[in-house]
From TrEMBL:
This is Metal-dependent hydrolase. GO terms for molecular function: hydrolase activity. It comes from Motiliproteus coralliicola. The keyword Disulfide bond does not apply. The keyword Membrane applies. Coiled coil: none annotated. It comes from the Bacteria.
Length: 339
């Protein structure tokens, strides 16, 4: 999730666990620790693709964070020796903040290796968008109330209510995702549209409008569905996938890693004689968030080049149409159709 949400989540969890014992210190340390796992973005991993696939790896491991917890508790007690009697509650609070950070990240579509080093599988439920005010707002209100009323039980009760509402929102997202996925599979079957992989993720900033990605070897389809639609029919736009552009690059490490990390939800394009792999899961066609140059066009086959990430050219002009499509199925929303 975004940094603001992780700060709010950390503050809320810290206050819930140890706020009554140490007051505002719980909110402050929760905020600081809530951002700690994402500092791995400051560590160079060896290349553009490596930076992409190893973000949310060891730094987001439940096991690594458990091993780190005693050191962080020691640091906190060094700075606040008057709270030593609460060392065990501090330990629970620290690990709870770190663990909820990585577990929340697992609800997004990016991929979080929470079981590293036992497994490097990137857990990606994809049921909540990386920035969703409906998830963040209840907790933020609860944290603000607890800061104002930190000497009152009412403040801590409000904080718990905020956490509860936000947690229920995550459950809602899982249910909505399963519902839309079932509709999508049925709609594809009715249209005799085959697919090897199917993914359903929310569109930006909401959980009412969902993006459906169906992938085959040589093409992929994108469709959109709002929970307010009065039909269960999906209109899917077909795009070429151009797998032939990877001929000769199949064993190249950046290519194999991108195929693995994206779980097969990727496309290949030729841009100015460069072979570009785009992760289909994040962004709206054709402005994907993660695009990498992995080769160059040559005769007879493409040749590998040092991997490089291309700039993400976000087209915010699509957002009004997307928001309008949530409420009205007659509003056309087919980004990238003219590509």
């Amino acid at each position: 999730m975004d940094s603001v949400t992780q700060i709010v989540l950390g503050s809320a969890v810290g206050s819930a666990v140890i706020g009554r014992q140490v007051g505002a210190k719980a909110v402050v340390w929760g905020a600081l620790l809530g951002t700690l796992p994402d500092l791995d973005t400051l560590i160079p991993m060896g290349g553009a693709v490596a930076d992409f696939v190893y973000h949310r790896s060891f730094s987001h491991s439940l096991f690594v964070l458990a091993a780190l917890t005693p050191l962080l508790v020691w640091l906190i007690l060094k700075l606040h020796p008057q709270t030593r009697e609460h060392r065990w509650r501090w330990a629970v609070a620290v690990y709870a903040v770190l663990a909820t950070h990585v577990l929340l990240d697992s609800f997004t579509v990016y991929g979080t290796q929470i079981f590293w080093p036992l497994s490097d599988y990137p857990v990606a439920l994809g049921s909540v968008f990386i920035i969703d005010p409906s998830y963040t707002a209840p907790m933020l209100i609860g944290v603000l109330i607890v800061l104002v009323l930190r000497h009152s039980r009412a403040g801590y009760r409000a904080n718990l209510i905020g956490i509860g509402i936000s947690s229920l929102y995550l459950v809602w997202g899982l249910g909505a995702q399963a519902y839309v996925k079932n509709l999508a599979e049925a709609s594809l079957d009715k249209q005799s549209l085959t697919h090897q992989r199917l993914m359903v993720t929310p569109t930006p900033f909401n959980s009412l409008m969902w993006r459906v990605i169906a992938v085959d070897d040589d093409h992929y389809r994108i469709g959109y569905y709002s929970l307010l639609d009065k039909t269960d029919w999906f209109d899917m736009v077909r795009y070429p996938r151009s797998p032939e552009l990877l001929k000769g690059l199949e064993s190249y490490w950046p290519v194999r890693k991108l195929q693995w990390f994206s779980k097969g939800f990727y496309t290949i394009d030729a841009e100015n004689d460069a072979v570009v792999i785009s992760d289909l899961r994040m962004g709206l066609e054709p402005d994907f968030a993660f695009r990498f140059v992995v080769g160059e066009i040559a005769n007879p086959h493409p040749t590998p080049v040092p991997d490089a990430r291309l700039e993400n050219l976000r087209n915010w002009d699509q957002l009004p149409a997307l928001m309008a499509r949530i409420w009205d199925s007659s509003v056309p929303f087919e980004p990238g159709l003219s590509r």
